[in-house]
Amino acid sequence: MVSRHPVLVLSICIVLEPALGIFTLATPQSLAPYLPTPQPVVERMLELAQVTAQDVVYDLGCGDGRIVITAAKKYGAHAVGVDIDPERIRESAAKAKAAGVEKLVTFMLQDARKVDLSPATVVTLYLLSSANAALRPILTGQLKPGARIVSHAFDMGDWQPLKTEHVASDGGFSRTLYLWIADGKVRP
Ligand SMILES: C[S@@+](CC[C@H](N)C(=O)[O-])C[C@H]1O[C@@H](n2cnc3c(N)ncnc32)[C@H](O)[C@@H]1O
Fold first, then answer.
1. What distance in angstroms lies between residue 64's CA and the mean position of ligand 1's atoms?
2. Contact between 159 and 180 (Cβ < 8 Å)
3. Mutation test of ligand 1: which of 82, 85, 116 has the most ligand atoms closer than 8 Å to its C-beta?
4. Which domains does the chain have, with CATH numbers?
């Protein structure tokens, strides 16, 4: 039961990875292993960002594309998923097609640190603290003032979130969500 807690699972991956060499953290490009956000938490992340059809939503490390697909299907937003794992990108594209939103979404096989984020009005993250720290200067350097960033489970160090929320999720565990709004100040 305890081992299903998302932050614990991600932490266990980090601890075991050097010994077992089986997780995606084994590659220098990897910011986090694959672990999907439960759908009710996806819905709340998009509500927290106040996504509308006018938004362009980027999910950095998109996994199976669920955040991107939900943004397109529920809100009519344009959405972009970025992942370094080709299997995840294939899965995302197939699921977007099945959901009938392929015209609204784009999936990119790319390192999240190399993506041009200037078109994004919303960025979602479910990575790790170290990944958020690596992305922080990129996000704050590229996003236009007013763009919203929502992170599942991990904060951004000393950049205080505008809102922190606890969402009841699977197995009675609570997930923490963080919201920031870009203000034009670059944060290294
Ligand atoms: C914890 S999962 C989150 C999946 C999805 N965003 C969600 O919330 O359901 C992290 C994802 O980030 C991807 N990833 C790891 N390092 C990455 C990198 N450098 N660039 C892009 N994606 C990366 C992994 O392949 C994995 O699919």
1. 9
2. yes
3. 85
4. 31-181 (3.40.50.150)
